[in-house]
Amino acid sequence: MIHATRRRALALGSLLLATAAAPAAFAQTAKPTGEPVLIGVSGPLTGPNAQYGAQWKKGFDLALDEINASGGINGRPLAYQFEDSQSDPRQAVAIAQKFVADPKIVFEIGDFSSPASMASSPIYQRAGLVQFGFTNSHPDFTKGGDFMWSNSLTQAEEQPQVAQYAVKELGLKRVAVLHLNTDWGRTSKDILVKAVRDFGAEVVATEGYLPEEKDFRSTLVRVRDANPDGLLLISYYADAALIARQLKATGLNKPVVAVGSIYSPKLIELGGDAVNGIYTNSQFFPEDPRPEVQTFVKSYIAKYGAEPDAFAARAYDTVILAGHVFRQYGTERRAIRDGLAEIKDVPSVIFGKATFDKETRRVVGAQNARLVIKDGKFVVWDRSAIPTR
Amino acid sequence: MTSWLDHTINGLIVGNIYALLAVGLALIFGVSRLINFAHGSVYVVGAYIGWVAVAHLHTPLPVTILLVAAGSALLGLLIERFGLRPLQGSTKIAPLLATIGISFVLDQIVQIVFTPDPRALPSQLPDWRFQIGGGTIGALDILIAAIGFTSAVLLFGFLRFTKLGWAVRATAQDRDAARQMGVDVDQVNRIVFAIASALGGLSGLLVGMYYNYIDPAMSFQATLKGVVAEVVGGVGNIPGAIVGSLILGLVESYGIALLGTSYRNLFAFILLVVILVLRPNGLFASKRQLPPEPLTGTFIAPSKPVPLPTPALLAALAVAAVLPLVIAQPYLLQTLTNAWLYALLGISLTLIAGTVGQISLGHAALLAIGGYTSALLTLDLGVPVGLSILAAGFVAAGLGTLLAWPAFRLRGHYVTIATLAIGEIVSLAILNWESLTRGPIGVFGIPPISLFGYPIESARAVYWFTLAILAVLAALQLRLLRSHLGRAWRAVRDDDVAARSYGIALDRYKALAFITGGFAAGISGGVTSHLYSFINHETFNAQLSILALTIVILGGMGNVFGAIVGSVLLIGLPEVFRVAAEYRVLIYGLVLLLLIRFRPQGLFGTV
Amino acid sequence: MPLLEVSGLVRRFGGVTAVGGVDLSVEEGRLVSVIGPNGAGKTTLFNLITGLDRPDEGKVSFDGADITGFAPEKLAHLRLARTFQHGRVFANLSVLGNVLVGAHARLRAARPRLPVLGALGELALALIQPGSVRREEAALRAEALAIIARFGERLLPRQDQPAYSLSYANRRRVEIARALALSPRLLLLDEPTAGMNQTETAEMQALIAELKASGLTILLIEHKLDMVMSLSDEVVVMDDGKVIARGLPQAVRHDPAVIEAYLGHREVGGGAAEKALAEAAE
């Protein structure tokens, strides 16, 4: 059975090689000149969330390379100005005032955390500068006003897919949910629990944990006592790796299904053998044959010598999207806002084709690949491969 | 019932890990009477030395351990030589603050060198485990326990039976007497820092291997847990630190068993506060041990404050007031508005830490209480915004005073630890009390500031609004400082024993200080919540408490004008240094260190 | 009825009995001295009387009321003032500020009334500062300056200097000035001349004599025996936590037990005390 899966994976791989040769999304043209079109970025480069800011930069730079190599924004180069907020609301609001008062800034991305992003929303809204929160899944973020837009996945979309994977496809009947006790984790959990019940399974335990938590043994004892037949994780890759390792140490051998945010080569590095067998529903999968994915993955590996993760993919997607809007609707602040509402089917790593819902100012229809980790690699899940644990 | 066995074993395993941290902290406290806030940074450095050894040099485990121990010991020597020794003869609070500065610098250097990404630190032990209860114990668990236990035994033997150990103990008991008896106290300090840091670095390595995970941000949590474990066992008491660590691990584990995972730290900090109140010397303090050192009198730097005549203050206020008419840049005004809001926090803390001498590291909790009060009053009860901000001041004053009450009977560094814990408890209570605070989702859609129906939204209007509040509250505080109350507060700070003998009931005057200070901080939090429109439990975090303390030290303890200038500088400078992004925290830490070293009384002097 | 009456006071630290059943009484307007070698338990006795430490057994009465184990702040409101052996001044307060703190317990606003409302009322009064409060403050300030003036050139020119900048002897003077600001009914002085030279000691002795003459009741711990002998109405000699002799200065100085106690503690008692005793005995 394992052999069968591996053959499929290999077949898929050779298909990828073929598509990778497809021409890049943007045609080569003259080097852009003149005053750059400037995006303001407010995000963490220092402080506890610095790692995410560093990943953003990688994704952004890659997208800039691509856009500027293909003529920039109608002949002008695209650039961003990254202001370190440490994801601290106080600094984020000051940065917001700086950006809105700077006529060169036509579009804003960030901040990372909800407190920082949403604290600065009123300033962007009053000034009429689009605040684009690509990591802001907080359900209230885009309710801040008609200048708040997000291509972050809505949990209402993602969580039912996780539930479906776990309940319908893997046949779990009694699940335990472990979630990060943050705004994102909490919102996700509520939707996930409801979806699991709608699919007819039972939620026997829910446990929220703090982001700085490292030891989950006691939590896992509670989970074990609830006697689930599988675990659902609403985690980032770092905590997912810790949980997986401790699951192994506790001897709790149950299937684990995790949300897409765990998708990262780092999960494998940190989790080692213990993450084998984890199922995940990812919106980003580097072996996805679509050309936008392959362009991204290839140039990412070429530039940074490492595989991208979902965060980098989203950062990249966001700047590519901004580039499309600027090219089509111009670089005037309000025109950009109107353009976001108008633009259709922008090629996207995460969404395939991204189109905004005018009411919610979010994108729906993310790609959804069912993956499983096998022998230290994410591979496409295949029904015939269950149950392996 | 087997789950209870499992919870017990898990608690002991986690406690085992805390013990490695707590032993080093206890050793340093025993000799230097110093809570080393840089211990967590040594732990991080140790973990990264280990990572370099394992991932790049491919050293076998014993060599890795030796490298980490030697490297961390060297770091300890450097910290002692360049960070702390120059502060000898300085005020008692100076070394504590210096260790905070050192930890900023070290963490940031690690982050710049190794990037903030988490890394895997593979264990070099065979993956061998045996079943106990419902869980398993592995080779690393045994190694950690063995190293913890061996180091405790070795330390005990060293302290008991060697000449140097005798010198260490003599220094710990009475530094001056030891010096007179010919003990080289500096030498003792060096040795203690080297040993403690070697242990700290080693614990970083082992914990990193244990979880196969290291990142530069893990330092603060490590310090926090180590300090809690140490205090539970009795500061400066090495066997106590080990038992305290195991108890902390057990309490956390049982706490999770009872209420769930997000209650872990809540239990840890409540344990700390309970111990501090009931047995401030820890569970295992021997009877003969001296009561907590008074640490008063020389706790803050004596100095003549820079004279600030009232006309000069009024002129400064006038300049601030007309500024928006001259420069209308919203970014500048927003930055200064932030500075005014932090100045409110600053005058609050300068009263409590500076005037009354209660060095609080949990001051952000007062902002949080104010912020949530005003936000929830407007959203849930429809209270008009101006009134809700006023209510935020009163609620923060009242609730803050009640929460700080357990710390009133403590002195010196113990107040600092207790307030740190109380601050964390408030933040965790906000996270877990969902029916009131909306938990991790936070409070969204907080209406903007308005007064009597007039919206205060433009950068300029908000600037004037916050400046006016600051001017009024600062003037009131100055008025109080000139009254008999100001005298009584400063007497409590300078010598609480003498103050009591002259009729100053400590509880009453500390409470009055917290009421006054809580009001200003609550107003600041309230205004902030309406300015941000969204707050959650992370909006007012522990970093803010440290920032507030830095503002106070920069301006001069107890100095109202100093706190205002301090916050303008500390809010303004990071904006200026924004270009230096990655290096900002480093610069901030260095500035703090230089300040403590060369101008401990702050810019405007202690009042 | 004596103003202060101590009976059967006991305080043990671990296995050591620091004060072992001390009886003592001080009549109104008299000066009683407690002498004894170092480690005799004199300061511990003071701490037990002034509420800084709690006795294991025994009773302390002040003006007929039981005050055993009262908190020091409560005793201050009964006008019981003390100075400290090593000098505890408020380092960052000015000389005048230190003396004004001495009068704290006399302030109308600071009197303990209702637990919470009293404190809030005090805060309100300090904020509003009505005429009565300002007049009271002005009167106390004048009084404090008058007290400082008693120390003449030693303190008067330094009234606005912070206490940390003063010499050791001057800090001791500030302590006594602070105690006087309470307008005490009983003044406990713990070695007021420690660390002073001969001239300074003579000045201090004159001041204490003057205080006694003005009718103040004083309990004094002192090592300089000639001073004790000339000032005291009664001398109580302690050794090893017990009273070994008491009576008129002349009677005590010839008591063999006293001489024995001082000689027996030659090493720890300090040569000065022994020498003083010998001189006084001649």
Automatic annotation (TrEMBL), chain A:
<protein>
    <submittedName>
        <fullName>ABC transporter substrate-binding protein</fullName>
    </submittedName>
</protein>
<keyword id="KW-0029">Amino-acid transport</keyword>
<dbReference type="InterPro" id="IPR000709">
    <property type="entry name" value="Leu_Ile_Val-bd"/>
</dbReference>
<dbReference type="InterPro" id="IPR028082">
    <property type="entry name" value="Peripla_BP_I"/>
</dbReference>
<dbReference type="Pfam" id="PF13458">
    <property type="entry name" value="Peripla_BP_6"/>
</dbReference>
<dbReference type="GO" id="GO:0006865">
    <property type="term" value="P:amino acid transport"/>
</dbReference>
<dbReference type="InterPro" id="IPR051010">
    <property type="entry name" value="BCAA_transport"/>
</dbReference>
<feature type="signal peptide">
    <location>
        <begin position="1"/>
        <end position="27"/>
    </location>
</feature>
<keyword id="KW-0732">Signal</keyword>
<feature type="domain" description="Leucine-binding protein">
    <location>
        <begin position="37"/>
        <end position="364"/>
    </location>
</feature>
<dbReference type="InterPro" id="IPR028081">
    <property type="entry name" value="Leu-bd"/>
</dbReference>
<dbReference type="InterPro" id="IPR006311">
    <property type="entry name" value="TAT_signal"/>
</dbReference>
<keyword id="KW-0813">Transport</keyword>
<comment type="similarity">
    <text>Belongs to the leucine-binding protein family.</text>
</comment>
UniProtKB/TrEMBL annotation, chain B:
<feature type="transmembrane region" description="Helical">
    <location>
        <begin position="511"/>
        <end position="532"/>
    </location>
</feature>
<dbReference type="GO" id="GO:0015658">
    <property type="term" value="F:branched-chain amino acid transmembrane transporter activity"/>
</dbReference>
<dbReference type="InterPro" id="IPR001851">
    <property type="entry name" value="ABC_transp_permease"/>
</dbReference>
<feature type="transmembrane region" description="Helical">
    <location>
        <begin position="231"/>
        <end position="254"/>
    </location>
</feature>
<dbReference type="GO" id="GO:0005886">
    <property type="term" value="C:plasma membrane"/>
</dbReference>
<feature type="transmembrane region" description="Helical">
    <location>
        <begin position="134"/>
        <end position="159"/>
    </location>
</feature>
<feature type="transmembrane region" description="Helical">
    <location>
        <begin position="266"/>
        <end position="286"/>
    </location>
</feature>
<dbReference type="InterPro" id="IPR037294">
    <property type="entry name" value="ABC_BtuC-like"/>
</dbReference>
<feature type="transmembrane region" description="Helical">
    <location>
        <begin position="191"/>
        <end position="211"/>
    </location>
</feature>
<dbReference type="Pfam" id="PF02653">
    <property type="entry name" value="BPD_transp_2"/>
</dbReference>
<feature type="transmembrane region" description="Helical">
    <location>
        <begin position="461"/>
        <end position="481"/>
    </location>
</feature>
<feature type="transmembrane region" description="Helical">
    <location>
        <begin position="12"/>
        <end position="30"/>
    </location>
</feature>
<feature type="transmembrane region" description="Helical">
    <location>
        <begin position="37"/>
        <end position="57"/>
    </location>
</feature>
<feature type="transmembrane region" description="Helical">
    <location>
        <begin position="544"/>
        <end position="573"/>
    </location>
</feature>
<protein>
    <submittedName>
        <fullName>ABC transporter permease</fullName>
    </submittedName>
</protein>
TrEMBL record, chain C:
<dbReference type="GO" id="GO:0015808">
    <property type="term" value="P:L-alanine transport"/>
</dbReference>
<protein>
    <submittedName>
        <fullName>ABC transporter ATP-binding protein</fullName>
    </submittedName>
</protein>
<dbReference type="GO" id="GO:0005886">
    <property type="term" value="C:plasma membrane"/>
</dbReference>
<keyword id="KW-0067">ATP-binding</keyword>
<dbReference type="Pfam" id="PF00005">
    <property type="entry name" value="ABC_tran"/>
</dbReference>
<dbReference type="Pfam" id="PF12399">
    <property type="entry name" value="BCA_ABC_TP_C"/>
</dbReference>
<dbReference type="InterPro" id="IPR003593">
    <property type="entry name" value="AAA+_ATPase"/>
</dbReference>
<dbReference type="InterPro" id="IPR003439">
    <property type="entry name" value="ABC_transporter-like_ATP-bd"/>
</dbReference>
<keyword id="KW-0547">Nucleotide-binding</keyword>
<dbReference type="GO" id="GO:0042941">
    <property type="term" value="P:D-alanine transmembrane transport"/>
</dbReference>
<dbReference type="GO" id="GO:1903805">
    <property type="term" value="P:L-valine import across plasma membrane"/>
</dbReference>
<dbReference type="GO" id="GO:1903806">
    <property type="term" value="P:L-isoleucine import across plasma membrane"/>
</dbReference>
<dbReference type="GO" id="GO:0015192">
    <property type="term" value="F:L-phenylalanine transmembrane transporter activity"/>
</dbReference>
<feature type="domain" description="ABC transporter">
    <location>
        <begin position="4"/>
        <end position="265"/>
    </location>
</feature>
<dbReference type="GO" id="GO:0015188">
    <property type="term" value="F:L-isoleucine transmembrane transporter activity"/>
</dbReference>
